[in-house]
Design goal:
This is Cohesin subunit SA. This protein has 1170 residues and is mostly helical.
């Protein structure tokens, strides 16, 4: 390329890179290519060929030699061989904004290329023939990337040629008209030269038209006919999308049954993506009513299929099918039968809103869009208006659908297309209140109930502006225009219903359903309108009607609606509050007086009393009745019921409910003071006065325990508002208080005011006080009020303060283990890590492992290990996660000595070995493999003192592990496969239980896998063949690389391989030991001396590890590879690597993948062709 690209510094870039970057306008890129084509068409065409090859993701390139001497099939075969098999991704399938823009630029490039070449180059019988031949060959490739990219290119090329053909057709028509006009002139005025020019131009245009048609036929027959039924849904979708464009652009040539049949057949495709493209293609055709006559045969053949697609399992497909039927309905009312329409009507109640809205539009077009001549001239509003008849039609449809409880869904479905009709509340009120005109049929009671429900749903939709419950994902952000419309609608609703609602309540006072719905309307009022509009008298009328409703009804829904209405009206922000509050107080005073009178003689007036009791329960839901002191009366009533035992159950139930809400109202009053008081106490934790801090701490612990999430248990979820959970800052301050005030030496305790040390009794009293403080905090841990891991700072003090708080800390560990064994184990290892870090910060990296500080941590780890008990299966997962966290901590920091040096936290493995005895044999193997992930071969070869923690920890994991592995391979008893004969019988028993143990091992691996999301390091998985550390390069691998490769084969297969390698290593180690006996003995003596000093008895190493430790050190990688190479034939090994995405797809592309039966439903085979 040159010109523009050279100016932008892209002269060395390929055409693919220029289009991918998208820095230059497509027009300039094409112009540069055309200039290059005019200078040397072979070079430019070769660049265009390589452009298509590179767009497919192929790393190869077509050379000039290949272009001149090889056929297209040979070039494609060569490119297939050079295609990257390691990945199935290619530019059209890659995600990200860059590749989305690339797809757009790719399609634009082809369209602009044809448009710029339409007057000369495309007719040179060279460029287009070469490109079409190449794309046709690539589209027939077994490689999906070639097929997908070339099909997209061919279809876009076809679309561009259709535009050229359309322009040629228009030019030919214009030329023909000019020729006819010139020829029809009289001879004297006729210009023969012009006639000859027009004839020559028409002939040239006709030749060009023939050439374009030949090109289109080549693409259609060579690409489309095969690819529209490709095995890949994306390719099929591309074909259907583009044929829809052709039929819409150039309907004279393509809108006939010969092309429509492909869309009709593909509507039976198994993939929703393809079916969706069919429907959108047809929508573009049916939208133009002029094309309706050409679609009659297609509609008659495939109408049933389109109707059935309204129930498609893909929501987008179903929605587009409904929209297509709406367009068909607009083009002709006679096409769809009543049954076809009914299948769409019921979708207005669909839970999927886009489908419901589309069905609502269909319903509106069918029932409400047609006006007869008798309806012209009717008033705009009122009972006799056009909207009056339409509202009646809506009510009739609602009742006939027999889904009366879903009026809100019907209104929501019609809202976007019929909101003006649904907002005509004046007409709805008129239909309910006004008497029918002579000859007019009045609404029945059932129809009036339905109209009230629709009216309420329309009010709610206008004021809330979001779909009903169950339809939609939640509230959306309204635009400024929508907010203004919402406010205007709310004002209209208030002005209209403030006057009409008392009249409606008076008319339907005894009707439960109507009154319940009508009483919900006031919560959507703008209450300021009552004052600004001088509507106070209508407020009084509304309050009187509510009083009447309360007096006449005992139904729970009606009473709750009355209570809710009073709750909405009793808003202190509005001036009508005093008026409503007085009316509410008068109503409640009367109810309480009646209640107290009936309570005295309820045994004689059981029926009346039970009827009167219901309002209090419902009023208590929304109103605080504390000042009427109903608790004493209800408590007295319940007590009498217990004494007599003959009180009616309904009275007891209502009394209990009423008392329950009275108590809740009392509790609600203490929430804010309680939270404010806790914040004050939190501040006092920083007081300089110790006694004040202790009192604040005690109160906070009690409050957090009382108002913890435990109060919601046993079905008490309604107490959720009372829960007070400590935030992170409060948890931190509580913990700091414990560390500063509890874990102190006796001598550091507070002194008396006279400066003298307290006597022994005072010390005991102070210790008792500190124990109480610690116990208060530990209860927060036990009841999960604070995070369990905060106990790490408590548990680490177990040894140091054993005499003072050992029993409390031990009980806390026991309780937390009952709550969550795994989390408790992680907390224990965290406490050891904290102690280790403190020791490191105090003594530095080169501390003495025989020091009292390090031995103290090991002793604490031993004590922690004993708390797990003897049942290893119960604590299996917890112990495994403990080892996992410990290993990660040991290798967390890089060596300060550089590569080859020990990690600074490596001595922690010596502490971790205290827990090795708690691992079952299968888990020892898994943990050992996980340890190898962090080890390099240099680490395995080290024998210096600084590496002894790693050696001892590996030995503790290998103890008892090799015996079982050897017995599985050899098929003999463990007595013959190990030198430790004293353990042969247990090993034999273990062998008989091996299947269960292997299942358990796989289960624990699964647990580790499930925890990958919560830990930053990779989890344990099975390994493929020949990927253990035996065959690794002598370098340390990252955990995410090595661990995923180490654990991915089944347990039995891995056990077989690991045993073979272990046996060969043992043989090699014994030979090496015999050859270097003297050196080993001296080295071992030195290490033995250090081990005796550094590792105390019972350190967690198994008793079987009495053999020289150096015997378990891994051999050098070179010797090991030579040894394995002698024992195994790598040429016969089957490496079960996961097949790449591309390779899998190629295997699926059989020669018969053009078979439509493999991608379409059986029903398509029964569809006749045109």
């Amino acid at each position: 390329v040159n010109g523009h690209h050279q100016e932008n510094g892209m002269e060395n870039m390929s055409l693919f890179e220029v289009v991918k970057m998208g820095r230059s306008a497509t027009q300039s890129v094409v112009d540069d290519w055309i200039e290059a084509y005019k200078q040397d068409r072979d070079v430019a065409l070769l660049e265009l060929i390589n452009f298509f090859i590179q767009c497919s993701g192929c790393k190869g390139a077509v050379s000039e030699e290949m272009f001149r001497h090889m056929q297209n099939s040979e070039i494609i075969r060569k490119m297939t061989e050079e295609f990257d098999e390691d990945s199935g991704d290619y530019p059209l399938t890659l995600s990200g904004p860059q590749w989305k823009r690339f797809r757009i630029n790719f399609c634009d490039f082809i369209a602009v290329l044809v448009r710029q070449c339409q007057y000369s180059i495309i007719y040179d019988e060279y460029m287009m023939d070469t490109v079409i031949s190449l794309l046709t060959g690539l589209s027939d490739s077994q490689v999906r990337a070639f097929r997908h990219t070339s099909t997209l290119a061919a279809m876009k090329l076809m679309t561009a040629l259709v535009n050229v053909a359309l322009n040629l057709s228009i030019n030919m028509d214009n030329t023909q008209r000019q020729y006819e006009a010139e020829r029809n002139k009289v001879i004297a005025k006729r210009a023969n030269d012009r006639l000859e020019l027009l004839l020559q131009k028409r002939k040239e245009l006709q030749e060009n038209q023939d050439d374009i048609e030949n090109m289109m036929n080549a693409i259609f027959k060579g690409v489309f006919v095969h690819r529209y039924r490709d095995a890949i849904a994306e390719i099929r979708a591309i074909c259907i999308e583009e044929i829809g464009v052709w039929m819409k652009l150039y309907s004279d040539a393509f809108l006939n049954d010969s092309y429509l049949k492909y869309v009709g057949w593909t509507m039976h495709d198994k993939q929703g993506e393809v079916r969706l493209k069919c429907l959108t293609a047809l929508q573009g055709l049916y939208y133009n009513r002029e094309l309706g006559s050409r679609l009659e045969l297609f509609t008659s053949r495939f109408k049933d299929r389109i109707v059935s697609m309204t129930l498609d399992k893909e929501y987008d497909v179903a929605m587009q099918a409904v929209k297509l039927l709406t367009l068909i309905l607009q083009s002709s009312d006679e096409v769809l039968t009543a049954e076809d329409c009914e299948s769409v009507y019921h979708l207005v109640y669909s839970a999927h809103r886009p489908i419901a809205v589309s069905a609502g539009e269909f319903l509106f077009k069918k029932l409400f869009s047609h006006r007869g001549p008798e309806e012209e001239g009717l008033p705009r509003r009122g009972r006799q208006s056009l909207n009056g008849s339409l509202i009646k039609t809506t009510v009739f449809f609602f009742l006939e659908s027999e889904l009366h409880e879903h009026g809100a869904y019907l209104v929501d479905s019609l809202w976007e297309c019929a909101s003006e009709l649904l907002k005509d509340w004046e007409t709805m009120i008129s239909l309910l209140l006004d008497e029918p005109m002579p000859g007019e049929e009045a609404l029945t009671d059932r129809q009036e109930t339905a109209l009230v429900e629709i009216m309420l749903s329309a009010v709610r939709q206008a004021c809330e502006s979001h779909p009903p419950v169950g339809r939609g994902t939640g509230k959306r952000v309204l635009t400024a225009k929508e907010k203004k419309t919402q406010l205007d609608d709310r004002t209209r609703i208030t002005e209209m219903f403030a006057v009409a609602l008392p009249l409606l309540l008076a008319k339907y006072c005894v009707d439960i359903d109507k009154v319940t719905n009508l009483l919900q309307i006031p919560k959507y009022f703008d209450l300021d309108i009552y004052t600004t509009g001088r509507l106070e008298k209508h407020m009084d009328a509304l309050l009187r009607q509510i009083w009447e409703v309360v007096d006449k009804h005992t139904d729970a829904e009606v009473l709750e609606a009355c209570s809710t209405t009073y709750h909405c009206l009793c808003n202190e922000e509005f001036t009508i509050f005093n008026r409503v509050d007085i009316a509410r107080s008068q109503l409640l005073d009367e109810l309480v007086d009646k209640f107290n009178r009936l309570l005295e003689d309820f045994l004689q007036e059981v029926v009346g009393f039970g009827r009167f009791f219901r309002p209090f329960y419902r009023w208590n839901l929304a109103h605080d009745l504390s000042k009427w002191d109903l608790f004493s009366s209800n408590y007295r009533l319940l007590s009498i019921g217990l004494q007599n035992g003959d009180m009616p159950e309904q009275i007891v139930i209502h009394a209990m409910q009423c008392t329950h809400y009275i108590v809740l109202w009392h509790l609600a009053k203490i929430i804010k003071p309680m939270r404010a008081f806790c914040l004050i106490c939190q501040r006092y934790l920083n007081s300089i006065n110790t006694a004040v801090k202790e009192q604040a701490f005690t109160i906070l612990c009690d409050m957090l325990l009382i108002f913890s999430h435990q109060i919601m248990s046993s079905g008490r979820e309604h107490l959720e508002n009372l829960v007070y959970a400590p935030d992170s800052s409060l948890q931190e301050e509580l913990l700091n208080f414990i560390l500063d005030q509890v874990f102190i030496d006796q001598d550091d305790d507070c002194n008396s005011t006279d400066g003298q040390q307290e006597d022994e009794a005072s010390k005991i009293e102070a210790l008792h006080k500190r124990r109480n403080l610690l116990a208060a905090y530990c209860k927060l841990i036990i009841y999960n009020v604070v995070e369990i891991n905060t106990g790490a700072d408590i548990f680490k003090q177990y040894m140091r303060y054993y005499n003072d708080y050992g029993d409390i800390i031990k009980e806390t560990m026991s309780k937390t283990r009952q709550i969550d064994k795994t989390q408790c184990a992680k907390t224990l290892i965290l406490s050891l890590q904290k102690l280790f870090n403190e020791m490191m910060s105090e003594h530095g990296f080169n501390f003495d492992r025989s020091s009292s500080a390090f031995c103290g941590i090991k002793e604490l780890a031993r004590r922690f290990s004993l708390t797990f008990g003897l049942d290893q299966l119960k604590t299996r997962e917890a112990i495994a996660m403990l080892h996992k966290d410990g290993i990660e901590f040991a290798f967390k920091e890089p060596s300060p000595q550089g590569e080859g040096g020990p990690p600074p936290n490596l001595p922690f493995l010596d502490i971790l070995s205290e827990f090795s005895s708690k691992l079952i044999r299968q888990d020892k193997r898994t943990v050992h493999m996980y340890l190898e992930r962090f080890m390099t071969f240099q680490m395995a070869l080290q024998r210096d003192d600084c590496w002894l923690p790693l050696i001892s920890y590996r030995n503790s994991l290998q103890a008892g592990m090799d015996d079982d592995a050897m017995s599985v391979i050899s098929g003999i008893s463990s007595r013959g496969s190990t030198v430790r004969s004293k353990k042969s019988k247990p090993a034999a028993l273990s062998k008989r239980k091996l299947p269960e143990e292997e299942n358990s091992s796989s289960s624990i691996d699964g647990v580790w896998m499930n925890r990958e999301q919560s830990v930053p390091t990779p989890v344990m998985m099975h390994s493929p063949h020949l990927t253990s550390t035996v065959l690794r390069e002598p370098k340390r691998m990252r955990p995410e690389e090595s661990y995923a490769a180490t654990f991915s084969v089944p347990a039995e297969q891995h056990l077989h391989q690991a045993t073979q390698v272990t046996w060969m290593l043992t043989q090699r180690q014994q030979a090496e030991a015999r050859q270097h006996q003297d050196r080993i003995s001296m080295h071992y003596a030195k290490m033995r001396n250090h081990m005796q000093q550094a590792i105390r008895r019972g350190s967690g190493l198994m008793e079987d590890d009495e053999e020289p430790i150096v015997e378990d050190v891994m051999m050098s990688s070179e010797d090991r590879l030579e040894d394995i190479s002698e024992s195994m034939d790598f040429n016969t090994m089957e490496i079960d690597l996961p097949a790449s995405k591309n390779r899998r797809e190629r295997n699926e592309l059989k020669p018969d993948y053009f078979d439509p039966s493999s991608i379409m439903d059986d029903s398509v085979l029964n569809v006749p062709m045109f």
